[in-house]
Design a protein that fits this description.
heterodimer, A: 137 residues, 3 helices, 76% helix, B: 104 residues, mainly alpha, 4 helices, 77% helix, 0% strand, elongated
Chain lengths: 137, 104
C-alpha cells in the first residue's frame, strides 16, 4: 500500500543530518590543514558522514525499489492522490495501519542492519589501530 | 520470488565488492547497500504476510510466481540503473572532467 513512505521519511531526515555532519567535518578539517598536520598524524577512523552515507544508500535504495514495486502493482499512480489506497476512507485506514506496522518495522530493521555494519566496521578499525600501535612499539 | 531475487542480487554484489580491488572506484559498496536495503524491507513485508497467511503463503499460482519473478528481475535492473546514475554523478575516475577540460 504505502509502507515504503515510512523509510522514505527517515531517509529525508538522515539526508539532512548527513549534510550537516559533512559541513561540520569540513569546518573541523580546515584548521588542521592550515597547521599542516593532516598527513602527520593520520589515523584509521570512520567519520560520521561516512557512516551516514551507508544508511542513506540502504534507505534510498530500498525506498526506490519498493516504490517501483508499488507502481508495478498499481498502488502508485502518476496523478493525484498518487496512492490508490487514498481513494476511500476504508482503504486509507488500512494503509495507515500498514504504515504503522510494516513501514515502521522496515525502518527499524534497516536501521538495525546499519548499526550492525557500523559496529563491525568500528571493531575492524580498532583492531587495525591495535596492530599499528604494536608495530610502532 | 521478488525477495529471493533481490537477496541473490545483494549477495552477488557483496561478493563482487569483497573480491574486487576497485571497490571504491566503482562504488560497489553503494550497489550492495541498495540491494540489502530493499532486501530487508521486503523481508519485513514477508514476515507480516507469513504471520497472516502461514503455510498458505507458499501455495501460489504459477502466474503469480511468474509475475513476482519478472518484478524481481525488473527490480535488479532498476537497482543497477540507480548505481550507474550514482557512478556517473560522482565520476570517481574523472571521465567527464577529462573529457570536458581537454583542449581542442
Amino acid at each position: 500500500m504505502a509502507c515504503f513512505t515510512v523509510p522514505a521519511v527517515e531517509a529525508i531526515a538522515v539526508t539532512a543530518v548527513y549534510i550537516a555532519a559533512k559541513k561540520k567535518e569540513k569546518k573541523n578539517q580546515l584548521p588542521k590543514v592550515a597547521q599542516g598536520s593532516t598527513l602527520a598524524k593520520e589515523e584509521p577512523s570512520i567519520t560520521w558522514s561516512k557512516r551516514l552515507s551507508w544508511l542513506l544508500a540502504l534507505l534510498w535504495g530500498g525506498v526506490l525499489l519498493l516504490a517501483f514495486e508499488h507502481f508495478w502493482h498499481g498502488e502508485i499512480v502518476p496523478f493525484p492522490p498518487f496512492l490508490t489506497a487514498m481513494a476511500t476512507p476504508e482503504d486509507t485506514a488500512e494503509m495507515l495501519h500498514e504504515m504503522a506496522t510494516v513501514g515502521v518495522s522496515m525502518a527499524i530493521s534497516v536501521t538495525a542492519l546499519w548499526g550492525v555494519i557500523c559496529a563491525v566496521a568500528q571493531a575492524k578499525v580498532r583492531s587495525i589501530k591495535k596492530a599499528l600501535a604494536k608495530g610502532n612499539a | 520470488m521478488t525477495l529471493l531475487i533481490t537477496i541473490i542480487a545483494a549477495l552477488a554484489a557483496t561478493v563482487v565488492w569483497y573480491a574486487s580491488e576497485k571497490r571504491d572506484t566503482y562504488k560497489l559498496g553503494t550497489l550492495s547497500l541498495i540491494f540489502w536495503g530493499a532486501s530487508f524491507m521486503w523481508l519485513m513485508d514477508f514476515v507480516f504476510e507469513y504471520a497472516e497467511l502461514k503455510a498458505e503463503y507458499f501455495n501460489q499460482e504459477f502466474a503469480d510466481i511468474l509475475n513476482d519473478s519478472l518484478l524481481g528481475l525488473a527490480v535488479v535492473a532498476l537497482g543497477l540503473a540507480a548505481w550507474i546514475v550514482v557512478l556517473l554523478i560522482k565520476d570517481p575516475k574523472g571521465v567527464f572532467k577529462k573529457r570536458f577540460t581537454k583542449s581542442e
